[in-house]
Amino acid sequence: MTIDWSWAGYALAIIMMLAGLAGTIYPALPGLALLGGGMLLAAWLGDFASVGSTALIIIGVLAVLGMVMENLAGFLGAQKSGASRQALIGALIGGLVGMFLGLVGAIIGPIVGAVIGELQARRSVQQAGKVGIATFIGFLAGTVIKIACAFAMLAVFLGALVF
Predict the structure, then answer these.
(1) Which of 14, 49, 70, 119 is the most exposed place for a label (fewest CB within 10 A)?
(2) DSSP string covering 32-46
């Protein structure tokens, strides 16, 4: 008697997808990568019968688009507000450092970095505040785009399973 272990693979795929969905809100987890990886694993376990190459390519493009936009959004927000080069570098460094400090660090890190960089460059509290707010708005926009990409990935995956 042989035991069919495919259920364990599907369980892992579901866990990866759930962790990926959590990662769209919690910045320390690679949300879209986990979500897409879980979908790829489920498709592979099903011999790509329901979820084929077209769906997986679309899912991959959505994942990459979401990750790129998430990482660029705060930077673009700061840049749009007329931030100095130091503020842009500060936002980048703050984002990298904040990533290791949990949810609060991931949100506050780029903002603090941008404000510190702007204060060093121009010594204007008003301009630094403007850059900080624009960086935060960019972060929020990036998060919304990432969540939208996650739901679009789910729609493509479920659509491929059903149709």
Answers:
(1) 49
(2) HHHHHHHHHHHHHHT
